[in-house]
Amino acid sequence: MKHFKASSILILTITLLMMLSAIPAYANDEDISLSPKKGDIDDKITVTGSDYEPGGRVYIYLSSHEAEVDDEIEDLNAYEQVVKTSAGDLGDPDEGEIDTFFRVPYQLTDGEDTEYVHGGDYYVYAAYRGDPTIVAVAQFTVIGGEIEISPEEGYAGSEVEISGNKFVANQQITIEYDGDDIEIASGASEVDINGEFTSTIIIPESTAGAHTITASDEAGNESEVEFSVEPEVTLDPASGSVGDEITVSGTGFNDDEHITITVDSYRVATTPLFINTDRNGSFSASFSVPSHVTIGTSKIGARGETINRADADLTVVPGISLYPITSQTSPGHVGMELAVHGTGFSSGDEFTITYDDTEVGAAIADSAGNFRATFTVPPGIAGDHNVAATDGTLIFSDTFVLEAEAPPTPMPQLPELAATVEGEVYLDWSDVTDPSGVTYTLQIGTDDNFTTIVLEKEGLVDSEYTTEERLEPAEANTPYYWRIRAVDGASNEGKWAIPMLFYIGSPSPLMPGWTIYIWIGLGVVLLAIIGFRLRRRIRQR
């Protein structure tokens, strides 16, 4: 009996081993392939794989988080189950394959976090039903957001249109230029229902070469393109005549690049004398239209130290210029000789020269169409004055700036402080000078505030004056006050000198009234004594 049982167990064991040897073995060799390996949201992606348990239910997941085989799906923060499938029939080793598809979702909603799907690298995982263990991994790239720009190159300040597609519908768009947010000048600021938008930006001041424009939505879809900035110069004004001041502004050069300005290939002096671009490759300077230009179009060039260069056209027209050139920081003065140069006219043209509509000279254009006239700047008011040349039909003008600096204050000298003088008073003060020449204004009053003025003289040429009008003595111990100031030929008034007091025909208040009476009394006593002695001598005789 025991022998039978042992034999039976042995036979059963051998039979089971034979049966197990007939079942194929699976050693976690599952694989997964994607076609295509990149795509847009909602694109159809085919999933194939082999070496799965025949008949096993396989779940396919998409996640933005990277994991490895034997990790668990549930450990990922954000993922989405995109499809369920079967691996052929149970018992058929050739049927452990999967062949299915999924569409790229808009969101990942099955993990702890919810994420929008956007452009970038994602991962496709395979796991069996009821078991979160990952058995196969494939990488997938989401093509999220695409943009095009027009134009692809140009100047700072130019408009660029951005066309975007494959973004998430109804989301706000952010545009960046070299990583900094830039305002949308016009067009859409939100993606439409088709995932598209069209917006326009203004290229900011930036250096020459390639710059990155980036568009992104709230979901994280992002696309970038390059825009190439080219050097450019502009003129203000864009037309002028010889001697006119022209401002030239440049953008799109290198940062801290030295710039030279040329007119018809000839280098010209500028203000400032040395020009360097700022950190954005921009600069601004000015120059005077030189005498070598001809009527028509002149080429204004800006040249950097590298290959950067840009040109602009200056329209040169007939006109006049003044010499010396004056400005608010470098004005002219009354009495100086001012030259008027005319260019671009016809030979023999006759011109009348005026200063603030007053004729000051005449000129005739020579065989080259040029003329020159000079005049002396007359007295006037500080500031801008119009100098013009007219042939009776056309008027050409330029501006002369007259200085606005007041002359110094003269110092009173005579009469001295608190002096007593006669009714006709001689007053003297120090000379002062001014480029525009000076005259003096004199005032005499009965108080040091000059609320009551008894004498005022304007336009005195000399630094002295004798009153023609006889001044009467004021009340006892009451002085007169006088003051003086200079006025230049540009009508600039200097400050008044400190008032000085004097007396007419009465003693100075430095000797009080009671002192005078004492002296009078002493004189009377002295006379009495002298008279008494004289009488005694007479009697003794």
The appropriate CATH architecture of the largest domain is: Sandwich
CATH class of the largest domain: Mainly Beta
Distance between the termini: 210 Å
**Judging from the principal axes of the Cα atoms, what is the shape?**
elongated
How many H/I helices?
2
Point out poorly predicted stretches: 19-27, 506-511, 513-517
Q: What's the average pLDDT?
A: 88
Instruction: Report the β-strand fraction as a percent range.
Output: 35-45%
Number of domains: 6
Give Rg in angstroms: 51 Å
**In which range does the helix fraction lie?**
under 10%
CATH topology of the largest domain: Immunoglobulin-like
Largest sheet: 6 strands, mixed
Structural class: mainly beta
- Strands, total number: 43
CATH homologous superfamily annotation of the largest domain: Neocarzinostatin-like
